[in-house]
Design a protein that fits this description.
It is a single chain. The chain is mainly beta. It has one domain (27-191). The protein has helices spanning 2-22, 59-62; strands spanning 33-39, 51-56, 67-75, 86-91, 105-110, 116-117, 125-133, 139-145, 150-156, 167-176, 182-191. Strands 1, 2, 5, 6, 7 and 8 form a six-stranded antiparallel beta sheet that branches. It has a five-stranded antiparallel beta sheet with strand order 4-3-11-10-9, with no helix packed on it. A hairpin with a 5-residue loop joins β10 (167-176) and β11 (182-191). The longest helix has 21 residues, at 2-22.
Length: 192
């Protein structure tokens, strides 16, 4: 009798565990961050974007908070200070708004195959950035302008990257200018 009760109890426990694993989490408990990342999903486009994300924030992170997408550029030299960094808003907070479900959800597209040369001035390069809100109708575009023309390394954040302390890293570029100096440009979603 005790063995039968234990089996029934065990079956109920296993069924509950499987059910909780398969249940879709609510927007309140979902993790905020990158829900999908794709590299050049449609190469047949006239100008395919190289790095493509969907970012979703849960209700707790979306409610009452304002976000913006910025680029932060700093030299990589050992004696650089935080005052050597420069910040530029790429997508303003008025564009990044919650949809009808109360959550911030958007697509972000960055980069052409070939960076645009001489952005702002000779010896600099740039990449386009396009924001498209899901369920909001909001959109924006801008340019990530690098301190140099030679892009040495690009590190996009993968699916599963989380919002931490109000900041979500999206992509990092390391570039070199004509004098040989190296700079790091980070594009991040940050809470204002």
């Amino acid at each position: 009798m005790a063995a039968v009760c234990r089996r029934q109890l065990m079956r109920a426990f296993v069924a509950a565990q499987i059910g909780s694993m398969l249940a879709t989490p609510s927007a309140q408990t979902e993790v905020s961050g990158i829900v999908s990342y794709r590299y050049e999903p449609n190469p047949r486009e006239i100008k395919p974007k190289m790095y493509n994300w969907e970012v979703r924030l849960n209700r707790a992170d979306s409610h009452g908070a304002t976000y913006e997408i910025v680029q932060i550029t700093r030299p990589t030299k050992a004696h650089a200070t935080t005052t050597d960094s420069a910040s530029q808003v790429l997508v303003e907070s008025k564009v990044i708004t919650p949809g009808q479900d109360g959550t911030v959800d958007f697509h972000l597209y960055v980069g052409d195959k070939t960076p645009k040369e001489n952005m702002g001035r000779r010896g600099r390069s740039g990449q386009p950035i396009i924001f498209s809100g899901i369920g909001t109708g909001n959109g924006a575009s801008s340019w990530i302008v690098f301190a140099g023309a030679q892009i040495e390394r690009v590190v996009p954040s993968p699916t599963g990257t989380r919002l931490l302390d109000g900041t979500l890293s999206l992509i990092q570029f390391v570039v070199r200018d004509e004098r040989g100096e190296q700079f790091q440009t980070d594009v991040v979603l940050r809470r204002k």
